[in-house]
Design goal:
alpha+beta; tt1808, chain A; 6-stranded mixed beta sheet; 4 helices
């Protein structure tokens, strides 16, 4: 499953799909796919996870509810927009937001209401709404798959 293009690298995100889909928690959507954040704001995150409605992928934003997670992979041309504008919008919408920094091989994790991110280079422990236990996402294998050894 393609996450985003970054130069010549293709970023894959099978991890999120393999975590949320088997237990019926959510569905993963990948750009190009639009999300109506509010009546005046349309966004296109690189990846987002939405809860399943009655165990199925919903077709409309209204049926999908609020995303469990929004993810961006900034490129040099979008980094400021992703880190400032989108982050502010997503936090105001009360949605967890990850910025996957391929150059640094780390993830900035922004939680709603927080003024600073947590920085993750080894793993992220993620427990979205509706999950009975936390998911542990190992980051080094992800970055090695995407970018090769450090």
């Amino acid at each position: 499953m393609l996450l985003a293009h970054y130069g010549h690298a293709r970023v894959r995100a099978p991890t999120l799909e393999t975590l949320v889909r088997p237990i019926g928690l959510g569905a993963v959507f990948v750009a190009p796919s639009e999300w109506v954040l509010d009546p005046r704001t349309l966004v296109q995150p690189d990846v987002y996870v939405v809860p399943l409605a009655a165990g199925h992928r919903s077709r409309t934003d209204e049926e999908r509810g609020t995303p469990l997670l929004l993810v961006e992979v900034p490129s040099p041309g979008t980094a400021r927009y992703d880190r400032v504008v989108k982050r502010g919008r997503y936090q105001r919408a009360n949605i967890e937001y990850w910025i996957v920094d391929l150059d640094s091989r780390m993830v900035e994790r922004w939680l709603p209401g927080e003024e600073r991110p947590t920085i993750h280079a080894e793993q992220i422990v993620w427990q979205p709404a509706g999950a009975t236990q936390a998911f542990v996402i190992e980051l080094e294998p992800f970055f090695v798959e995407v970018l090769g050894p450090a």
